[in-house]
Write a structure and sequence with these properties.
By secondary structure, the protein is an alpha/beta fold. It is built from 23 helices and 17 strands. The radius of gyration is 27 Å and the shape is globular. The N terminus is likely disordered. The structure holds glutamine and zinc ion (ZN).
Length: about 650
Amino acid sequence: MFCCYLSLCSHFIVPELGPRTKFSYASHKAVSEYKEAKALGIDTVPVLIGPVSYLLLSKPAKGVEKSFSLLSLLGSILPIYKEVVAELKAAGASWIQFDEPTLVKDLDAHELAAFSSAYAELESAVSGLNVLIETYFADIPAESYKTLTSLSGVTAYGFDLIRGAKTLDLIRSSFPSGKYLFAGVVDGRNIWADDLAASLSTLQSLEVVAGKDKLVVSTSCSLMHTAVDLVNETKLDDEIKSWLAFAAQKVVEVNALAKALAGQKDEAYFAANAAALASRKSSPRVTNEEVQKAAAALKGSDHRRATNVSARLDAQQKKLNLPILPTTTIGSFPQTVELRRVRREYKAKKISEEEYVSAIKEEISKVVKIQEELDIDVLVHGEPERNDMVEYFGEQLSGFAFTANGWVQSYGSRCVKPPIIYGDVSRPNPMTVFWSKTAQSMTSRPMKGMLTGPVTILNWSFVRNDQPRFETCYQIALAIKKEVEDLEAAGIQVIQIDEAALREGLPLRKSEHAFYLDWAVHSFRITNCGVQDTTQIHTHMCYSNFNDIIHSIIDMDADVITIENSRSDEKLLSVFREGVKYGAGIGPGVYDIHSPRIPTTEEIADRINKMLAVLDTNILWVNPDCGLKTRKYTEVKPALTNMVSATKLIRTQL
Ligand code: GLN
Ligand code: ZN
């Protein structure tokens, strides 16, 4: 769900498999943890990723022939599953859960058949156990539902009834008799208190379908995507706290619902929940009529800059007078220990505003000097005042709350602390203008204003569940639009609006892509449709998989886009090779900032040449893959030196 900003654009690592991959039973973690809990008197349900999802979520290793099908490995992985199951059985497990989240995706008949054959193959191994297949994150398609509910050896099915509300209709129309139904009614991915009365009535209707003794109350998915425990929140006020439920509270909600179903409803608990919900609904902190009206007026209309991109680029070039293959960076410069200390001490009021401002100014001036020495064409201020590209803006927008300890695992040991959007979003004051103006005053080169775009702010926050996501996004877009216009009025000629997370918000189901992309791209355009032709709008996107959304990227109508590219074997370029016409400025990253490795001038030059083979010389920009926040100066300086040398070398050859 969230990009870990610390690791910047990394997301998750998946197994890379090939026709000769050999599986063996290596880690016995599932069994040893089951035993450990059992020794403490707790009989747990061991959870394993199901064999079909494991394969479908893996990727073919590099160099593997195109005809290789991941599912061809099913026969060699199932024996390992059998071994694990046998060991769990021997340890005394009575239930086992296989997560098969791929079942909510658009699967073809061949993929669906793999589920049937995999579970038929496992049937004898799991006999005597209750087997739960858990699905989550979206509606399950009708065909997949049919396959799922007729799998052999399976005794229970779990569904996400929050993100998969339509699945309810499928369950109501037919559910196999004698099987358990795990009803995921409590949202496992967000932080809002459940509407217990509504969930109870859903559950009561499902009791009729599955039978009283076969209905199990559950969260919609695992609780790893939500914050841990509300008791750790000392800074949130009581009113907002009463609207929330983190993982620990969700477990209590599930329990209360199960008890209520069993005829032991805790009336006081349900009444307190209803009161909290009512207070959230009517709170003036949530609703801002003016914002609601402005956002509603945006729907259905188109917001585009009046002039087309090539005419705009001409107008901008007259003003900016940039060399061919302009060089720039993505925004952040290394975040040193000293910088973090300054921000921490300012927040804790240990240093005065004056001291803080002067420390940040000094840092900006250092970053400006470095870039001038490197001879970079379009500069950045380095983002030293920002802890995080979403939190920094959220803290200055109304409608946002922040937790002290609401950490969520993003990737490996990396965690993020997403803001909570609880109310209508507005921007009381300019957020970045002071710093951008300060930075611009230090140089005669263009200084990029640096903003986070509405879709990224939305996708990296806990979002309200009382209005559609797009409405919240439009509200954020209007707030960012004001900032863009203030930056322009302050004399900033180049403004970058990062949409690092646009791609990751793409729904799992293809049928929902168009709708999402439409409002997401529209929100981006809203932020900058009002600027003059001569103001150059940049955007930046992380993650390499753009090929399927390239037309939406073009439709964002930015003047320049910088894109992560170096880790994807220049996959991006293949789109252009295949004939997609791109007329705006584009900077596919020329080196990977995720690695401490310093790229040589030759290899960067080689990369640029490859790009020039498919892109017009006058639209190509030269820049790293992403922000430099996590790198050290000892890495950044030589890498950028080589980037500029490579660019200059190629300029002489054009
Ligand atoms: N402007 C941000 C930075 O440079 C962009 C980060 C990102 O794409 N994740 O750090
Ligand atoms: Zn990035």
